[in-house]
Amino acid sequence: MVHQQYQNSVAVLLSDLSINKESAWSYLYTNYQSMIVNLVKKNGGDEEAGKEVFQNVIIDLHHNIERGKVREDSNLKNYLYTLAYNQWRVKIRNSKGKNDTLEHDNSLIDESISFDEEQYELFDDMTAILQQLGEKCQDLINSKYSKIKMSMAEIAEQLGFMNARSATSQLNKCMEKARKEAVKVLQSKEV
Amino acid sequence: MENNDLTAYIDAFFEGNLSEEEKASFVTKRETDPVFDLEVKAHQKLKETVQKQELKHQLMQFEEQFIPDKTSLIDGYLEQSLSDELLAYVENKLREDEGFQEEIEAQKFIIASIKRNALQKRLQHFEEENTSIPEEEKKEAVKEVKFIPFTPKTISLAASVVIIVFISIFFLSNPDQEAEVISSYKVQVEQKNEGLGFAGDEQQDIIIEVIEDGKHSFHYKMNKEKLQIYVEQGRNIGNVSVVYDATSSPAYMILINGKQYYIALSDKVIPLP
To answer: What CATH number does the domain located at A4-115 have?
Structure first.
């Protein structure tokens, strides 16, 4: 039987997910992607939208694991379904401007799972801000804040800057520009 | 740390590169300066977003590598060549997605149609190959044709064949020519029921011809002027008398060797009734 280790222990799965182990991702895709794609398709989305929601659900799960918000006795199916339900509900509300009730399986909704709607929306807002920057700024910011840690000297060499100081100066300019927009968003949301 | 490089200052704090004194100063500044605090929050949100995007990119790459495109996935499922993981993926998808089953059925139908058409083309090709003369044979046949000039012998032989065929056709299409008139005479047609006044029906005389014919026996052909009676070879009949009755149908009665035959006019040789 495939993924036996994860079927026996959510703790092992959570541990492997926290280090982005591909066997853990493959377990999630095999068992839960169709469920979430189907939820989205039943509520006005298409297959691609469903797949994107599933990716965002894994990102949320990962985020929550890092913060110790996922209990080892969690029903993972319900956890993922609830995250997907909330994400798609917000997406539909923001695009249609009204709070529609989604067609869903209520038995899979776990009310105890907290969904930070504001944080979810902020991800989209911040993504939009970063995408508005020039390509050079995006490369610099991505290199600096990636999980793969690199020194400014390595980044400077990789991206063709004269030296680390020059790269650091450019990074500051890019981040000042991004932060300025991000501050506006945070102020509007009163975070 | 220079205050004008706020990015480096914030990064240094979160990366643990500030001294204890600088750390305390940083914390105090956040608590007392809302604008600075908001800058730090915005900075951290952007940083968090970069890391989430990175994870999303990794997931997309993984997905692309792990799950083949839908057509290949269905092909693999139908050919039973999927890995255990992908088979479990398809089985879950079948449970969850009603449309996926329909897509599998549609692809199965398309594949069957393609196979059927391919087989049909092969059969057509096979038929063509086995029913037509191959080009090589055609060429060889053309090579074997030689021009042979007509000699007097071949011309006379051909002429004989043509004459025989012509005569055969002529006699077959004119059976009367083969027959022989063995007696011919004229008799008066006896009128019956004259008083009923059928105008124009009166007939006075008619020629009787007795014809010996190898093909017909006791047949006749008749118009108002002539009655031809066909008999088999070597058989003759005595004189024939003819009676006309306008009220009867057929209108003529002929008497041959004391026996009556009721007949109508006929331009074809037909048996005596």
So the answer is: 1.10.1740.10
